User: What shape does this take?
Amino acid sequence: MRRTPQTGMTLIEILVSLLILAVGLLGMAGLQTVSLRNTQSAYQRTQAAILSTDIVERVRANLQGVEAGSYDNTAGAVTAACNSLAGCTAAQMAANDVAEWRLALAATLPLGQGTVCADATPDDGTPLAPACDGAGDVFAVKICWDSDRDGAAENLFTMSFQP
Assistant: This one.
C-alpha cells in the first residue's frame, strides 16, 4: 500500500475557516452598530452643550431682565419688536430669548425641551420634572431629549451659571 501526499484542503477545513470568517464579520458589524449609536449620542450631548451656552449668553446679555426675574422659569413668547430697530423691554427680550431657544431645542434634538430657572440645587430633577426651586442667585439650564427615539425624553443635561 502506497501513501500519496495530501495536496489540498479538505471540505471540513474550508467550512471551519468560513465559519470563523462569518463570526468575525458579524462581530465587526456589531462593533460598527455600537460605534454609530455612541457617535449619535455624543453628537446630541454636544448639541445640548452648545444650546445651553446659547441661552447662558442670552441671559448674560440682558442683566436687567435677570434682575427683574424675567428668566426664572418663564414660558417664553416670541416678540416681533425684539427683532426690529424699535426694540423691546428687558422682560420682552427675556421671553423672546427663551422662546427662540426652545424652538432651537425642538429643531435640533429629538423631543428637545428645556428650562432656565433660578435653582440653589441645579443638579437635581428628572426630564419630566426639572425641580427648579427659584432660590439663590445661581441659574440652571436643564435640557432633556429622547436619545433612543422611543417616545420618552430620558436624557437630562444640566448646566449652572451665575449671570
